[in-house]
Amino acid sequence: MQIQFTSYRKLMNLEKLQIAQQDFLRVYPQGFQDEKMLELSKKHRVDKMTDFVLDVFSRDQFNLPARILENWAKTVSRSSMVSTFEKPKFKNMLNDLSAHEKELMVNGLYEQLHGDAQAGFNAQLDILKQYKLAKWSLISVVPAYFKPQEEVFIKPTTAKGVIKFFELPNLTYKATPSWEFYCEYRQQVLSMMNFVDKQLAPNTPAFCGFLMMSLPGS
Length: 218
Known about the structure:
Helix content is 64%, strand content 0%. The chain is mainly α. It is globular.
C-alpha cells in the first residue's frame, strides 16, 4: 500500500505528536517492548488475536459460512477493543439473521478481507444498519487484526479525540460508519506512524493505543 505523506506533514500538528512521543517514551523508554507496557498490553493479546483471525478468516475457510459466523462472534467477544455492551448484541444479531442476510454478511467480510474492500464494507454496513448495529467497532475490528500493519480499528471516543487534538485535516467524525471516512482516517493514522519511533508503532492497534493514551484527560 503506497501512502503519500507530504500534505499531512504540513497540515497535521506534528509538534503535538512529537511531544506525545517524548512523554510516552519518558514513562516507557522501550515503547511497547517496555516491561511496564508489556504488562499493560497482556489484556489486549493483539498477537494472539491476529494469529486467530488469520487462521479462521483465511480464504479457504469461507467455504464454511456457518463456521465464519461462529468465529466472527468469537472474535468480537474476545476482543478487548470492542465494548462489552456491543458483544452480545452482535452475537444475537448473527443468530437472528435470515439465511440470505447471513450470506450477504459472510460475502461482505470475504470481500473486505480478500477482495473489493469497499464493496464488502458497504455490504456489511447495510445489514448492520437494519439491525441498528452500524458501529465503527464492529465493522473495523476484524480487518484491524487481519491486517494490523494496514487497517485500523476505529473507537469513536479515540477517533474524535485524535482528530481534534492532533488537528487532522479533512476529517469530520460521524457516528454512522462510512467508507470515505474510514479511508481518510486510516491514511492519516498510517501517515502519523511514519513520524514516530518504531517502538511506538509495531502495529496499528498499538499505535492507536499510544494515541489514545496521549489525549488530554487520558
